[in-house]
Amino acid sequence: MNWTLEVVPVPVTDLDRAKEFYGDKCGFKVDLDSEVAPGVRIIQLTPPGSRCSIALENGLPTAPGQKQMAPGTLHGLQVCVLDIAAARDELVSRGVEVSAVHHVGPRGWTEGRGETWNSFMFFQDPDGNGWTVQEAPSELSER
């Protein structure tokens, strides 16, 4: 049986501001923006080329046995690109504050590109949820 990760909830304070950030600034495709029940709005967006989306939600009850995440507490989400310099240029041109490209060296994080699988950049959404972008050597289907 396959278990595919397809949606990750991202806690935000303002759905419209987050939709603008992820849709316009990050270039994610808006798949859904709907009031699915009275007072329950869900916005689902997908990064270009990804099979996994993010969900911005308002009014959705917490699932049994789970706790509500506070806006800005989600960190470590990671997406991969084939050309980190081009991806950084695109984000900067869209108005996203993104770090320089870094790699992990003998003394920790060091500015500049690294070898295969070792080039990263970082950004946050308006609420402080943290994202990592990693350069991959090839498309997922080729690995």
Task: Outline the secondary-structure elements.
Layout (H helix, E strand, L loop, with lengths): L6 E3 L5 H11 L3 E9 L2 E7 L6 E6 L18 E5 L2 H10 L8 E4 L2 E4 L8 E5 L5 E6 L8
Explain this structure:
With 143 residues, the protein is of the alpha/beta class. The chain contains two helices and nine strands, in the order E-H-E-E-E-E-H-E-E-E-E. It has a single domain, classed as 2,3-Dihydroxybiphenyl 1,2-Dioxygenase, domain 1. The radius of gyration is 16 Å and the shape is globular.
Strand tally: 9
SS element count, helices: 2
Average pLDDT, all residues: 95
- Spell the H/E element sequence: EHEEEEHEEEE
Task: Give the full name of the CATH homologous superfamily.
Answer: 2,3-Dihydroxybiphenyl 1,2-Dioxygenase, domain 1
Q: Helices and strands: which structural class?
A: alpha/beta
Unreliable spans: none
Largest sheet: 4 strands, mixed
- Portion in beta strands: 25-35%
Named CATH topology: 2,3-Dihydroxybiphenyl 1,2-Dioxygenase, domain 1
Main sheet strand line-up: 1-4-3-2
Distance between the termini: 21 Å
Helical residue percent band:
10-25%
CATH architecture descriptor text: Roll
If you compute it from the alpha carbons, what radius of gyration comes out, rounded to the nearest whole angstrom?
Answer: 16 Å
- CATH class reads Alpha Beta
